Amino acid sequence: MENNNNQSTQYIQFEYKAQEAKKKTKIQQSSIEEQYYNLPLKERIKIRNKRIKQKLKEKSQEIGEKAKIKSKQLKIKSQEISEKVREKNRQLNHKIQKKIDEHKSHQNQRNNRARVQPNAQVNIPNSIPTKFCPECGHKVSFSGKFCPSCGSTQ
To answer: How far is residue 106's CA from residue 108's CA, in Å, rounded to a whole number?
Structure first.
């Protein structure tokens, strides 16, 4: 029982000291505020400006750090996209090359078939262009103004 009383008195003393410490900090805070408000207006403005500058500095550092992180993320994303684009280009180039090879193969097959066929008579048109008469259907030279068969004008 004596032990319990001893503990409770220690607790009460501890609580009392904590309350005193709180009072001191409150007094210190209030005294700081009182001192601030007791200063001349120019001094208070200077202090306020310093506080604002400090807050701005902290915010700008915070924003700068966020910007660095975002920049790194964007750089990584950009590299990933670039790699995907390169891969797509490789695939497309491979497909294009495959189509070109297929086309060359078909062209070679056509050329080989043409060589295998026996020499067929090829109709070579006359070197002088000709036309036909609309009246009788007879051949008329291209430069002729009259049909040699019926005499109609061309």
So the answer is: 5
pLDDT tens-place string over residues 19-66 = 777 766 666 666 777 777 788 888 888 888 998 999 999 999 999 999
Angle value at C-alpha 63, between 57 and 69, nearest 5 degrees: 140
Helix (H) or strand (E) holding 79: helix 41-116
DSSP character for 20?
Answer: H
Give the three-state DSSP class for 42.
Answer: helix
- CA 12 and chain centroid, separation: 67
**DSSP single-letter state for residue 153:** B
Please tell me the pTM assigned to this model: 0.37
